[in-house]
Design a protein that fits this description.
Layout: H1 6-26, H2 30-55, H3 59-89, H4 94-98
């Protein structure tokens, strides 16, 4: 395999996943949390494709395609939920979403 070594791809994917995890755990804005989840999905895709490239296997590319399709569906449903909460509460703060239980 020529080009960038696998360890660099793994390091980049791990850093991106860590940034996404920190965003999910520390932020209160639903849009930022949503973008952090998307960042985590893309980090997993990056690592998956790095391993597929190292092995010369096309199955990893097919799996990454399905992950992208699931992420697109999740984006559509997630944004619809966020818009619905915003219309009801006029805020996308996650603390306000917890108040919807009542």
């Amino acid at each position: 395999m020529s080009g960038i070594p696998l360890s660099w791809w793994l390091t980049l994917g791990t850093v991106l996943f860590g940034v996404g995890t920190i965003g999910v755990l520390t932020r209160r804005n639903a849009l930022v949390v949503f973008m952090s989840i998307e960042l985590m999905l893309n980090a997993v895709n990056l690592i998956l494709l790095a391993f597929a490239r190292q092995r010369g296997d096309e199955h990893g590319h097919v799996l990454a395609f399905f992950i992208i399709a699931v992420a697109a569906a999740e984006a559509a449903v997630g944004l619809a939920i966020i818009l619905s909460v915003f219309r009801h509460k006029r805020s996308v703060n996650l603390d306000d979403v917890r108040a919807l239980k009542h």
